[in-house]
Amino acid sequence: MTPEELLAARDRLVPDVVAGGLRVLFCGINPGLMSAATGHHFARPGNRFWPVLHLSGFTPRQLKPAEQDELLSYGLGITNVVARASARADEISDEEFREGGRILTEKVELLRPKWLAVVGITAYRTAFGERKASVGPQERTIGETRVWALPNPSGLNAHWTVQTMAEEYARLRAASQAGDEAGKR
Questions:
Q1: Each residue of 47-83: pLDDT tens digit?
Q2: What is the DSSP string of the chain?
Q3: Closest by Cα among 92, 74, 77, 73 to 30
Q4: DSSP 13
């Protein structure tokens, strides 16, 4: 991908990978330029979403971004808090995050996944006005959908390793398989 091709992807939208009644709807912050250029979520080579998804037991093998539609067969999907692509998440205003939270709420009410998993605690806090939220299951529900905040899988998130992220994602996987009580602390 050339720098020009990446820049041309700014503000593009990446289609959601969704269906009604999913087990877990993963929600990214917003698409990066690589994702917008390819049309595939979490497409940047340094992003750890796909390895973590596999290591946590959500998928039987590590999928490539181009195989994202295969997630539906596992009861999983992907959307974003903010739909437009940017080079960095800090290019998204708090107002855009709050509007994204409103739109995401409507989407979840329509699709009714068992769990909404927001991958990025800061995005979750801003979009939903939950300034003290921490990683893990949240008190908030959207209809009957439970909410879990997960660490951002970006390679820039040095606070979490692939292994520690996989452990947190595995907690969500267990909760999504065992029932609502398993996700409560």
A1: 999 999 999 999 999 999 999 999 999 999 999 999 9
A2: --HHHHHHTTT-B---B--TT-SEEEEESS--HHHHHHT-TT-STT--HHHHHHHTTSSSSPPPGGGGGGGGGGTEEEEESS-B--SSGGGS-HHHHHHHHHHHHHHHHHH--SEEEEE-HHHHHHHHT-TT--SEEEEEEETTEEEEEE----TT-TTS-HHHHHHHHHHHHHHHHH-GGGG--
A3: 92
A4: B
| Residues 6 or more apart in contact with residue 137 via CB below 8 angstroms | 146, 147, 148, 172, 175, 183, 184, 185
What sign has the CA pseudo-torsion 79, 85, 91, 92?
negative
Query: What is the pTM for the complete model shown?
Result: 0.93
- Contact yes or no for 78/41 (Cβ under 8 A): yes
